[in-house]
Amino acid sequence: MVWKKGESGNPHGRPHRGESMADELRIVLALKGPDGRRNQRVIAEKLVELGREGNVLAIKEIYDRMDGKAPQLLEHTGKDGGPINVAASVLLGKLTRIAGGGDAEPKSD
Q1: Distance between CA atoms of 70 and 66, rounded to whole angstroms?
Q2: Up-side HSE of residue 27: CA atoms within 13 Å toward CB?
Q3: 29: nearest Cα among 19, 40, 45, 18
Q4: Max Cα separation, the chain?
Q5: Beta partners for 38?
Q6: Which residues pair with 32 in a beta bridge?
Q7: How far apart are CA 41 and CA 30, in angstroms?
Q8: How confident is the model at residue 57 (pLDDT cuts 50, 70, 90)?
Q9: Which residues neighbour 71 within 8 Å (Cβ) at sequence distance 6 or greater?
């Protein structure tokens, strides 16, 4: 879909805070349970307990939270594992149309 100049592609904008699952979880995790302990603390303790019992998923989650997830190498290749070939004239034409305020693909009549 092509938008006119000045027209928003997202007319309602970003959702207000409190509407996302992450926001709702933050609220619930901050609450205290019937035992007076915060839900976040109880869940963290359970995760460590499972890790100590050898639960690999719990161990992975703990390390991902503490050290960050390991970087994932992504490799892009062309046909048969070779380099990706791009015809310079095609790319230059698309870039010229975009720079001129047009679409990357020419309109077919």
Answers
A1: 11
A2: 8
A3: 40
A4: 70
A5: 32
A6: 38
A7: 9
A8: very high
A9: none
How large is the average pLDDT for residues 5-13? 75
Looking at residue 87, the DSSP 8-state letter turns out to be -
Report pLDDT for 48: 97
Share of the chain residues as helix, strand and coil, in percent rounded to the nearest 5: 45, 0, 50
Q: Measured on CA atoms in the order 31, 19, 62, 46, is the torsion positive or negative?
A: positive
Of the listed ranges 12-21, 41-50, 66-75, 96-105, the least confidently predicted one is 12-21
Which two three-digit tokens encode residue 46?
A: 């359970």
Q: What is the CB neighbour count within 10 angstroms for residue 26?
A: 13
pLDDT of 27 above 70: yes
Q: What angle do CA 106, 8, 100 make, to 5 degrees?
A: 35
DSSP assignment letter at 32: B
Name the region of 54 (left: φ>0; alpha: ψ -120 to 50; beta: rest).
Answer: left
Structure tokens at 42: 């109880």
Q: What is the CA angle 74-76-77, rounded to 5?
A: 145
